[in-house]
Design goal:
CATH architecture: Alpha-Beta Barrel
Number of helices: 2
Order of helices and strands: EEEHEEEEH
Low-confidence stretches: none
Distance between the termini: 21 Å
Largest sheet: 4 strands, antiparallel
Strand order of the largest sheet: 1-4-7-2
CATH topology: ADP-ribosylation fold
Number of strands: 7
Number of domains: 1
Mean pLDDT: 86
Helix content: 10-25%
Shape: globular
Length: 137
């Protein structure tokens, strides 16, 4: 589902290791989990819990993996790193915005990926970093 097709009452998620509270605003400008790790001018989120789980599991840092329910405060677009680049359409319902996301809740119970699958994904991310494949900013 493309950003332009999301209903007004859609639920969105953001996976991270940041410790946030309801009402806080998440903003662009923090180090990216992918590529060179430079600060990103976008903040990423998804309408699927599965994509948010990957985000939490792949997030940089030492804190616990967290998934927040978020509300975009402004316009958002399809994530070009996934949409029509790796997957036709936007099956992961992944989006990005340059406007803040408001934390409206936290998903406290979720199941991560099996260790072997997670390691395979981490190895893939590391390989892309070594090869100089960077996220689209």
């Amino acid at each position: 589902m493309y950003a332009s097709e999301q209903p007004e009452n859609a639920v969105f998620y953001h996976g991270t290791r940041a410790d946030l509270k309801v009402g806080e605003l998440m903003v662009p400008g923090f180090r990216s989990n992918f590529g060179t790790g430079k600060p990103s001018s976008w903040i990423y989120f998804s309408a699927t819990l599965e994509a948010a789980i990957w985000g939490a599991e792949l997030a940089q840092g030492d804190g616990p993996e967290r998934i927040y329910v978020v509300r975009p405060t402004g316009q958002f677009v399809d994530d070009p790193n996934l949409t029509d680049t790796k997957f036709a359409g936007n099956p992961t319902q992944s989006y990005r915005s340059q406007m803040p996301l408001e934390v409206v809740g936290e998903v406290e119970r979720w199941e991560g990926h099996p260790p072997d699958l997670l390691q395979k994904m981490k190895d893939s991310v590391e390989r892309m970093r070594r090869e100089g494949i960077h996220a689209i900013d």
